[in-house]
């Protein structure tokens, strides 16, 4: 029998975040004023309670270690969704152009959620090697 997922697991927390909570997470991570993004104090309180934020000595909200892990999980889920929408996969450079960080892509490959293949191609009369990425069955299961 499979164990139920722990709620403190970053993947589980990322999957259960509502839209305002995701926006707040991105705002705090990027130093954007969350009040101007329309985030309420109740949402901030909920995120503090979950342990994703803490207040520094000046009272400014900062991400905790758990908050950074949840943010990374959100980035991974987004990259997996992009690849799931491409039936034949796509090149690493396209994923980078879509905003995926190279570290996130490498972690997905190491975790077996994405496969990578080196392909030779010719573009503008020049031979080059392209890294092609495809989501694996494990990656599809990870995003549900």
How does this structure look, described?
- The structure is a single chain.
- The chain has 144 residues and is α+β, with helices and mostly antiparallel strands.
- The protein has a domain at 88-143.
- It is built from seven helices and five strands, in the order αααββαβααββα.
- The strands form two sheets. A three-stranded antiparallel β-sheet has the order 3-5-4. The protein has a two-stranded antiparallel sheet with strand order 1-2.
- The longest helix has 20 residues, at 65-84.
- It is elongated and about 55 Å long.
- It starts with 9 loop residues before the first helix and ends with a helix.
- The model has no long low-confidence stretch (mean pLDDT 88).
Note the main attributes of this structure:
single chain; 144 residues; alpha+beta; three-stranded antiparallel β-sheet; two-stranded antiparallel sheet; 7 helices; elongated
